[in-house]
Specification:
The protein is an alpha/beta fold and 401 residues long. It folds into 3 domains: 67 residues, Winged helix-like DNA-binding domain superfamily/Winged helix DNA-binding domain (Arc Repressor Mutant, subunit A, Orthogonal Bundle); 124 residues, ATPase, nucleotide binding domain (Nucleotidyltransferase, domain 5); 165 residues, ATPase, nucleotide binding domain (Nucleotidyltransferase, domain 5). Helix content is 40%, strand content 19%. The strands form 4 sheets. Strands 5-4-3-6-9 form a 5-stranded mixed β-sheet, sandwiched between helices. A 5-stranded mixed β-sheet has the order 12-11-10-13-14, with helices on both faces. Strands 1-2 form a two-stranded antiparallel ribbon. Strand 11 and strand 12 form a beta hairpin. The longest helix has 25 residues.
Length: 401
């Protein structure tokens, strides 16, 4: 007979219950805003007096504000509640070439956005970011700031809070969180860019009921974020989803991680540019020494045959990795983030064909480009800060799947 030692089970204190109830109410306000206190009580199952106490605390903390009054057939008209749109979050998207910095409200609406060249070392990056943060905080002193979210093309050790793996940044292991928190007084949340994009899909799509999703971010490298059964998967050391460095060709080009033929050196933006130059050299048509990926997309649209071939080769290599994702994680959907989605009609048929050839799923997996395009990473940085307030999991579907 199985015996359970009840002494080892945690006991929920009244403080824990208040904290959970506050999160429930805050999430309901976010999802259903504008909403009355009475409606909150009905949806949450909490007593009206409890809901009133929680909402008053949220108003005092400047998380929630009162807005218009609702209409009822009779009786007192209720005052509707919504999130305080003046509550700000600083969001940062670090990439190998540029760092994007924005200010967003709690609904993911941006008030400003700018970018700076990415410094060659993390110490210089921290100094430049702090200068930008001080300017932003000074310009909007009347608005409450909740925190700073940072997405980056690498993996973070959550025990030490160090960036430990970022071959495309060519930065050593570094603690970005502590010096920024000390200098600004704001809490800093740091996450891999693909994971951040997965969170953005959850938080900012009110109708999304997906519980099994993989995001694929494509730029200088490739990253993947995994949502399984409604939970973000990080792994034991924060390295889950590092599929961009899965070796597909042992004789392929050298990757920044030290191996040959990783998925990202075969299917990233850099790979497409390399394919173009290889064909251009063979054809004696080398004219674009400083070619950017956006320019390559434009050249393909204008009928440049070498650009078309380069993108087609990139699409086929992307499809190989997507086959691996479908077989490994069986997601409901795969969301793609990157400049290449501007030419989605060129990439989708090749990826879709490769997935269908596997014939291992009774239901086709949905292949969707991110609606926010390149801003998905910044919006994901906002979601990182909100993560602790609105809960982790996605709602259960009717079937419990």
């Amino acid at each position: 007979m199985l015996r359970i030692d009840l002494s080892d089970l945690p006991v929920a204190s009244s403080e824990t219950a208040r904290h959970l109830n506050r999160r429930v109410i805050l999430k309901l306000i976010r999802d259903k805003q504008p909403i009355s206190r009475a409606h909150l009580a009905r949806l949450s199952g909490l007593q009206r007096s409890t809901v009133s106490l929680i909402t008053e605390d949220l108003i005092e903390d400047r998380w929630v504000v009162e807005g218009t009054t609702g209409r009822l057939p009779r009786g007192r008209r209720p005052t509707l509640l919504h999130l305080n749109q003046k509550r700000r979050i600083i969001c940062v998207d670090i990439r190998p070439k540029r760092i994007f910095i924005g200010v967003s409200d709690v609904n993911g609406v941006f008030a400003s956005q700018e970018s700076i060249p990415t410094p060659p070392d993390p110490e210089s990056a921290i100094r430049q970011l702090l200068a930008k943060f001080r300017s932003l905080l000074k310009d909007r002193m009347e608005d409450p700031y909740e925190g700073i979210g940072i997405s980056l093309p690498g993996r973070v050790d959550y025990a030490t809070q160090q960036l430990v793996f970022a071959p495309n940044l060519v930065w050593p292991a570094v603690d970005l969180k502590t010096p920024i928190e000390r200098a600004t007084g704001l809490e800093v949340a740091i996450e891999n860019a693909a994971n951040a994009c997965a969170l953005a899909e959850i938080w900012f799509d009110r109708t999304n009921t997906l519980r099994n999703l993989v995001t694929v971010t494509v730029s200088e490298g490739i990253g993947t974020g995994i949502i399984a059964d409604g939970q973000l998967i990080r792994g034991a050391n924060g390295m889950a989803g590092e599929l961009g460095h899965f070796q597909l060709d042992t004789e392929g080009p050298m990757c920044g991680c030290g191996k040959k033929g990783c998925w990202e050196v075969l299917a990233s933006d850099r790979a497409a540019i390399r394919y173009y130059f290889e064909s251009a050299v063979r054809s004696n048509r080398l004219k674009h020494s400083g070619l950017e990926f956006k320019a390559l997309l434009s050249m393909a649209d204008q009928g440049d045959t070498l650009a078309v071939r380069a993108l087609d080769k990139m699409a086929l290599q992307l499809a190989r990795g997507v086959q691996m994702i479908v077989g490994a994680f069986d997601p409901e959907a795969i969301m793609f983030v990157g400049e290449f989605t501007a030419a989605w009609e060129r990439f989708e048929p090749r990826i879709k064909s490769a997935v269908e050839q596997q014939k291992i799923r009774p239901v086709p997996v949905s292949l969707v480009p991110a609606r926010d395009g390149e801003r998905s990473r910044l919006r994901g940085s906002v979601a990182l800060v909100l993560y602790k307030y609105f809960g982790v999991g996605l709602p259960q579907s009717a079937s419990g799947q």
